[in-house]
What we know:
Elements: H1 2-38, E1 45-48, E2 53-59, E3 63-68, E4 74-79, E5 83-87, H2 89-99
Antiparallel strand pairs: 1-2, 1-5, 2-3, 3-4
Amino acid sequence: MNSSISLVIWVVVLFAFMYFFMIRPQQKEQREKTAMMSALAIGDTILTTSGFYGVIIAIQDDTVIVEFGSNKNCRIPMDKAAIARVEKPEDAVKAEEKSK
């Protein structure tokens, strides 16, 4: 009887551990990524998952058109899922003012 109760307790502890250290952080990360994607705007500087920096020039449903390079000739449509990080123009201005 005691062994079956202790087994149930260990199973509950194991599932609680898995939830708080594996499932919950992954859900939080997914919510943050969804919020980042919904806040995309034209003019935002992005970093793609492949390591390229670019500026968003147009936004469609699941696609963004990104301008790469300083010559303004390289415009590539990409999936929103390929965006790893977004930097808003006002964030860059704030960082520049801080450094002065």
